[in-house]
């Protein structure tokens, strides 16, 4: 009987610990949820300013992302998707182009998320990597300015990756040992270009 009471007592103690721990975790989540959200917004806004320095504000664009990404896929781009679109506007209220949050798909470690600026004429103004789970020392080098700047200042219908040395505006030198990552990022860039060139209303 004594052993049975001990088991019941231990079970009650364990239950109390579980309830208290769960309540504390819930409280911590509620406390940190809003600051994390605001930090993510601030990081994204900073990325917008970095990829489209000539813009003063970034205005919401009404986009059906399922429809947009279905059209991007039907346009032959199967390794990139658009997740957010903002219009880049200067101080006088003139629309300059767009900043888009995109995912390059089919990377070595998954997707690569980044923000890209594109003018109304389809010229890339900048790229800022936001999330990347690629291999350190290899795919992670897509964050380096030398790689990202290959796209900047060019207005093409789409880019392709080469390992033989870029010889045209639409060619991107692959990162040594990370062709998959290079192709992944390029897929996201091409999705953004397709949106601006073909799907802007």
TrEMBL record:
The chain crosses the membrane at residues 12-31. It is found in: Cell membrane. The modification FMN phosphoryl threonine is found at residue 179. GO terms for biological process: electron transport chain. It is an enzyme of class 7 (translocase). Its cofactor is FMN. GO terms for molecular function: electron transfer activity; FMN binding. Its EC number is 7.-.-.-. The complex is composed of six subunits: RnfA, RnfB, RnfC, RnfD, RnfE and RnfG. Part of a membrane-bound complex that couples electron transfer with translocation of ions across the membrane. This is Ion-translocating oxidoreductase complex subunit G. The lineage of its organism: Bacteria, Bacillati, Bacillota, Clostridia, Lachnospirales. The gene is rnfG.
